[in-house]
Amino acid sequence: MDNAVTLVQAYLRLNGYFTVTEFPIVEAMKHGGHRTATDIDVLAFRFPGAGRLITKKGKGAHNDRLIGRIDPALGLLDDGADMIIGEVKEGRAQVNHSARDPAVLRAALTRFGCCHGDSVDALVESLIRKGHGTTEHGHRVRIVAFGSILPETDPGYHTISLGQVIAYAQAYLNDHWEVFRVAELKDPALGFLATMIKSTAKSTVAP
User: Fold this and answer.
1) So where are the chain's domains?
2) Would you tell me which of 7, 20, 84, 191 could form a disulfide with 44, CB atoms 3.0–4.6 Å apart?
3) Cα(166)–Cα(161) distance, rounded to whole angstroms?
4) Which residues, 6 or more positions from 59, have their beta carbon under 8 angstroms from its beta carbon?
5) DSSP strands (E only) in 140-182
C-alpha cells in the first residue's frame, strides 16, 4: 500500500471510520471483456457516535471510558453517518478526473450498499457538482482529497493536508499513550509512530 494511503487510513480509523483502501473499479469493455478502469485510494464510513472505548473489567458499562475526539479538519457538521470517497496524493490535494466519473462513483457507493436504483443517479450528480450529497436514508457522502499541498481556491470538494493527518495521529497517540503503549498495533502507520514515541521517551531518560 502507498505510504500516504497508509497514513490516511490510520487517521480515518482513529476518527472512527471503517475503511477500504485501493478499491479497484472494474468496467465492462464495449466489445466484450473487462478491465480495471481505476482504483479508489480510500473508501471510509463512520457510524453516528463511533469512538474508541476503553472497557473496565466486569459486567457493567458505567466505568467504561471513551477516548479521543473527531478531528475538526474532517469538517463534520454533526455526528451523523458519514461516507468518504477519498483521493490521496503525496503532492497537491486534488481529485483525478476518473474519481468523479459517474460510473466510478456508482461503484464506490454500491461498495457500502448505501443506495440503489434511481436514487444513486441523483447522489452521483450532487457529488460531481458540489463534492457532497445525502442518501435517501440521510447518510452524508463526501469526496475528500488528501495531500501535502492544499489548493488556494475552493476545488469543489473537501481537502485535508497530510501534515494535519500526521499531527492528529501523533497527538492522539501522545494523549492516550497509557493505552497505546500496551497495545499491539498492527496498523503499520500507527506502529511506526508508536515506535518513534517510544524511542523519544527512552532517549530522554538519563543513563
Assistant:
1) 16-162
2) 84
3) 9
4) none
5) 140-147, 158-161
